[in-house]
Amino acid sequence: MLHCLFVPLPTPLNGVSAFCRRLACWVVLVGLVACSAPAERAEVDGDAPVTAQQRALNQVVGQLLTTPPSAFGWQPFALPGKRQVLFEPVEVAARPALRVKADNSVSILRRRFEPLLAQPGRISFAWRVDALPAGADLAAADASDSPVGIVLGFEGDRTRWSPKMHRLSEMSRLLTGEELPYATLVYVWGNRETPGTVVVNPRTDRIRKMVLDSGTRDIGVWRNHVRDVQADFRLAFGEEPGPLRVVALMTDTDNTRSALTAWYGPLTLEPADATKP
């Protein structure tokens, strides 16, 4: 996924080793689900002007992306020092979609839940790509790009964290005002990994990726997925999921410096009680 970005830390952390500071910043950025950019707050609160492009995006997002209610809407999220390509509303074969023309870039569209979604249930979504990031390897820290991804960030019992994760979360709080999510599950399209594989992030085991599609066979084809979020979390982390903090779309090609186009179709996230027979 994302490689480490150096962000100067506040004075109280000046004694922390350079490696720890870089690692903390990387985890903060990969754990994007915990961070709330000032621009996002302004747009949600209505303090920033809404452009015609944003209105068009909001209209298609309203048609395509369905989740339980939240005080926050869907908003683009930019990572410092990274090239951002915005999601565009388009039609593909007369069906609405969101398109990302990625080029050595990171594109994120996310929704934070306030209040938290206590028990996430089923998620269904569709995606399509015209190419894969050349040389991508989900298990390699500096090559773990994915052309499409659905990110789910969870709350949980932080007493189960290692001391290192507590330190990283505290650094995140100092950098962003918010702690890291307890755990992050990412559905991805891999280059070589077998579908169904769970890949543990090489820098922190609190981020795990589940491969749903792999290789070039289905390039140019809409791929539709329906997943049981709680079952997938148990498979990936070996424990019960806590409340859901955020859901996001993410197209990531910066490590491999790749150019490709990705499309996202309808996404529906339901609470667990809505999926019971």
How is this structure best summarized?
With about 280 residues, this protein is of the alpha+beta class. It has helices at about 20-30, 40-45, 50-65, 165-175, 230-235; strands spanning about 65, 75, 90, 95-105, 105-115, 120-130, 150-155, 185-190, 200, 205-215, 225-230, 245-250, 260-270.
Description:
- The chain is α+β, with helices and mostly antiparallel strands.
- Helices cover 21% and strands 34% of the residues.
- It contains 5 helices and 13 strands.
- It has helices spanning 18-30, 38-45, 52-64, 163-176, 229-237; strands spanning 65-66, 75-76, 88-92, 95-103, 106-117, 120-129, 149-154, 183-190, 198-200, 207-214, 223-228, 244-252, 259-271.
- It has a 7-stranded mixed beta sheet.
- The radius of gyration is 18 Å and the shape is globular.
- The termini are far apart.
Give the helices and strands, then pairings.
Layout: H1 18-30, H2 38-45, H3 52-64, E1 65-66, E2 75-76, E3 88-92, E4 95-103, E5 106-117, E6 120-129, E7 149-154, H4 163-176, E8 183-190, E9 198-200, E10 207-214, E11 223-228, H5 229-237, E12 244-252, E13 259-271
Parallel strand pairs: 1-13, 8-10
Antiparallel strand pairs: 2-5, 3-4, 4-13, 5-12, 6-11, 6-13, 7-8, 7-12, 9-10
Helix pairs in contact: 1-4
